[in-house]
Design a protein that fits this description.
The complex is a heterodimer of chains A (351) and B (332).
Chain A (H helix, E strand, L loop, with lengths): L3 H15 L4 E4 L19 E3 L4 H13 L4 E4 L10 H13 L9 E6 L14 H4 L6 E3 L4 H13 L4 E6 L18 H8 L27 E4 L4 E5 L3 H13 L5 E5 L2 E3 L3 H11 L2 E8 L4 H13 L8 E5 L9 H7 L3 H13 L3
Parallel strand pairs in A: 1-2, 1-3, 3-4, 4-6, 5-6, 8-9, 8-11, 11-12
Antiparallel strand pairs in A: 5-10, 7-9
Helix pairs in contact in A: 1-5, 7-11, 8-9
Chain B lengths: L12 H26 L13 H10 L10 E3 L5 H6 L4 H9 L33 H15 L5 E6 L6 H9 L9 E7 L2 E2 L2 E2 L19 E6 L3 H18 L3 E6 L20 H11 L5 H23 L22
Parallel strand pairs in B: 1-2, 2-3, 3-7, 6-7
Antiparallel strand pairs in B: 4-5
Helix pairs in contact in B: 1-2, 1-4, 1-8, 1-9, 2-7, 4-9, 5-6
Classes of the chains: A alpha/beta (351), B alpha/beta (332).
The complex binds thiamine diphosphate (TPP) and magnesium ion.
Amino acid sequence: MANLAQAIRLALHFGEENLGVTDIFGEDVGAPLGGVFTATQGLKTAWNTPLDERGIIGTALGIAYAGGKPVAEIQFCDYIYNVIDLLKLCGNVTWSSAGEYHVPMVLMTPVGSGIHGSMYHSHSFESIATHIQGWKIVMPSNPKDAYGLMLSAIAEPNPVLFLAPKALMRQKGAELIPGEPADEKTLHNMIDAPLGDRSDWQPNWPPVEDYRVAIGEAKIARAGTQLTVVTYGRMLPLSVNAAETLAKEGLDIEVIDLRTIYPFDLPMVKASVEKTGRLLVINEDTEVTNFGEHIIRKVLDEAFYSLEVKPELLAGLDVPGVGLAWGYEQNSVPQADDVLAAMRRLATERA
Amino acid sequence: MPATPWIAPALDAQLKIAIHDKMALGRATEEMMIRMMRTGHGYFWIGGPGEEGFNVPLGLLTKKGHGPDYDYLHLHYRSSATILAMGAEPINLLRQMRATATDPYSKGRNFVNHFAIKPWNVVPVTPTIETQYTTVIGTALVQQRHGGDGLSYVTGGDAGSAEGDFWTCMNWSTRPGRELPVLILVTQNEFGISTPANQTQNNLRLNERANGFGIRNACVDGNDPIASWHALVEAMEYVRHERKPYCLQANVSRLYGHSSSSGANRYDEPDCLGLYEQRLIRENLMTQAEIQAVWDKHNAQLAQDLQIVIAEPMPDKSHVLQHVWHEGPAGN
Ligand SMILES: Cc1ncc(C[n+]2csc(CCOP(=O)(O)OP(=O)(O)O)c2C)c(N)n1
Ligand SMILES: [Mg+2]
């Protein structure tokens, strides 16, 4: 089974061969490293840029203007802030030019905590990203979805922000990507660069196939009837685990993997809340002006009378950083026991 | 069909007269738009009166067309004369000034002189005064791979060149073995809105910054269209054939101040048009009467255009939802 980083790599390879990807670039994205998480190792159009995020985004937009299909990377989302006006430009070109130009580009960046990354390798970006109009925003929680979302992102004529939960980069999937060898050792030998000198190394790509996860389509990761949990990325496996644990207590919890953060699958969320009458949104971002608040507001607009108890958001603490000491991180970003406790409380709260 | 190679036309008498015609068209169009602002036929005005001496040669020397065989334009908001020299219809500038539904560049969404013309590789002009110096890298990169003699050029003001994007452009276009066909243009008018250059620039020759990157560079009197023509031909020949960057500064005037926010009143600075007309008369290329006829022709046409534009519809409120997303296939 491919891990999430390998899945991204396989998708980018498929994109180069079949979907017209012309450039995959960013800091340390090309040889020899192939990305700090190895997500771009061995790709034929991958190249290293100067250490200059503004140059990276401007170049991507220019390539898109000139008919190319760029996939750019910001090494960690924590370093994306000095390009906000360029992201705004990418998102407003189609509208401001009344459709004369559009921006088929993908921007990927690792997000979130869970790797002892401290101040500048732990933050989330989706809430700020949703304030930059004109972008679609996706975040997978498993390798197969990462593959399918990346292919959809590449094929999309609008800019897509692909958020990769960094704590899950080494997680293997439960399902094979179509065309992936069943044995993970075989896959490793085919596509992972050797340690040490790799100047003569070439990947041997497996014949991966076209598999898309449509942008805007969420997935019911676990079906249930008593509480709707809406989450994505790193919080998804924690939520599914908690739901399984609580099932032993007789609680039947539905977990929705949003997969696309914007535009999000409101019909699926609404249908689920109409069934369960309860909503818990979980993510890692800081809680003030958190995207989860928007999800709750839409549910209040569309399914208020289905709610039996007050909907809740479990999110990161509103502090300036995720600190290095484990206690800080545990107390800044929801952990497994916080997820479990919030789910139990909301599922059992008296209506 | 491969694009034909670019060759600079000979600067003969006919071309010198044509340059005047386009300069006058640029000025007349801008002055009409300033009047529109004053008479309630538009809101904000910003534009390029005072830069025609440089911008018209630039437009005439542009390899105009769509795709990497042709030049990509990443323009500053003072580029009206460049676009008009390329053949844009002045009525379309008036439409954007008035923010009509017929504005072909932004459908009433953006300020005047914010063009977007895909058939001519004019990428959307954006009010962020620095981002064009980074987007130009991307189009030039595509052209570098594509081959041919198309280049990407970027224009910006002197104050805006303080932004990191200016340095990004020089740095990315000189990576060893990966040099890019970028023509980096700066218009030096010694102001950024109200701030005089001597408070912010230690050397008014901004092109000399390019020395640090080994980029060939020059400075030209942008009030002199003949000197500008020759400087642009030299720069373009170099970029087109060497496939390496070049930085050219044009010293220009800002004849109506920064924008309508500062009143758009006429300032006493050298006027490229007046100077050029004296020269055309001196060199017996045009008479005063012929020059006057050029102005009369453009002014009459613009007056007619204005009547058309003020009768045209404004965008409907519901149009605000159009073009948020591109619905068709990907690819510009
Ligand atoms: C990134 C950015 N910062 C600030 C502004 C506001 N602003 C508009 S024009 C301008 C001055 C630009 O001066 P210069 O680059 O010399 O160009 P000029 O107007 O003189 O042609 C400023 C500060 C802006 N448009 N973009
Ligand atoms: Mg200036």
